[in-house]
Backbone:
């Protein structure tokens, strides 16, 4: 198996719900479920890898408060070199709704201060050589994002394939954000997009055509994946053929982080040399299990007792 790593946004999620209808201002409602857990795209993918028993490395930072201490303790030895920033740890409060959707309230916190030097103080390029690195949270990690070109140069120097999942821009898919994402994709081996992101970036309504258009601007051999939720996922690989899989029918409990969990399953299969269709299938299977279980589960392989292993 090729080495795996993830870089980007790790924060705290407080999940409450379900809530419907949205309460009036000045009132209080009782909900059935609450959960405090690791969040952020990078954090969600790391949790899935850990739950599947897959070795990985993770570069992130935390704030200098109790939440930051809790995050570092959760990741054990993997967080020993994480920088501690003089800000509060980013917190997202997610309100779930009966249809499985959710609403987030998020503080800026520590995430904008994750820098390239922070990342390189955690990751060993020699140890990760020839591997795959998932890059997340592009529109939240401002200091690192400004140095993406240098980051891509570092990855290229160590033959590390970068898989990009930018997440949703806080100010929407403006022309500036679209242009920036296209530039980043031109340096990446893998694009992990949802349907809206792929069609918006390409200007095409058909997801398969959108994937093909985006791939035409990426390096030779690149893979573009489009995550389609309940409709499964599709991908276009090095041969230019479009492959799609359907998602299993499940009773949805919590969709938070579904795309991040898909990324983890997909890349775990890809780094094991599995065919593209099998990679898509693993991504959809792991994500479907995660969103339909409480407490959340990722598969039959046992999770380690803590992330220090």
Residues:
């Amino acid at each position: 198996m090729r080495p795996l790593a993830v870089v980007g946004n790790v924060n705290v999620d407080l999940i409450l719900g379900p809530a419907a209808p949205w309460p009036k201002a000045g009132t209080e409602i009782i909900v059935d479920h609450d959960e405090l857990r690791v969040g952020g795209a990078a954090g969600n993918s790391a949790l899935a890898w850990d739950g599947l028993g897959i070795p990985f490395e993770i570069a992130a930072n935390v704030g200098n408060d109790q939440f930051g201490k809790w995050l570092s303790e959760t990741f054990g030895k993997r967080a020993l070199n994480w920088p501690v920033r003089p800000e509060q740890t980013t917190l997202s409060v997610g309100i779930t709704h009966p249809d499985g959707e959710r609403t987030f309230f998020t503080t800026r916190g520590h995430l904008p201060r994750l820098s390239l030097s922070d990342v390189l103080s955690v990751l060993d390029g020699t140890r990760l050589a020839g591997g795959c690195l998932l890059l997340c949270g592009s529109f939240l990690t401002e200091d690192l994002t400004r140095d993406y070109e240098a980051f891509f140069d570092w990855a290229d120097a160590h033959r590390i394939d970068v898989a990009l999942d930018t997440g949703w821009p806080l100010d929407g898919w403006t022309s500036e954000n679209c242009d920036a994402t296209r530039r980043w994709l031109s340096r990446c081996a893998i694009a992990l997009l949802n349907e809206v992101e792929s069609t918006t970036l390409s200007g095409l309504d058909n997801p398969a055509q959108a994937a093909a258009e985006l791939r035409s601007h990426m390096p030779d051999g690149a893979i573009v994946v489009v995550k389609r939720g309940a409709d499964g996922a599709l991908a276009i690989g090095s041969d230019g053929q479009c492959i799609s899989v359907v998602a299993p029918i499940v009773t949805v409990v919590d969709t938070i982080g579904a795309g991040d969990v898909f990324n983890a399953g997909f890349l775990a299969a890809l780094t094991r040399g599995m065919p593209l269709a099998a990679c898509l299938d693993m991504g959809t299977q792991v994500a479907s299990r995660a969103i339909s279980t409480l407490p959340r589960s990722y598969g039959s392989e046992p999770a380690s007792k803590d992330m220090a292993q």
Remarks:
- Residues 4-10+41-65+73-89+112-291 form a domain with the UDP-N-acetylmuramoyl-L-alanine:D-glutamate ligase fold (CATH 3.40.1190.20).
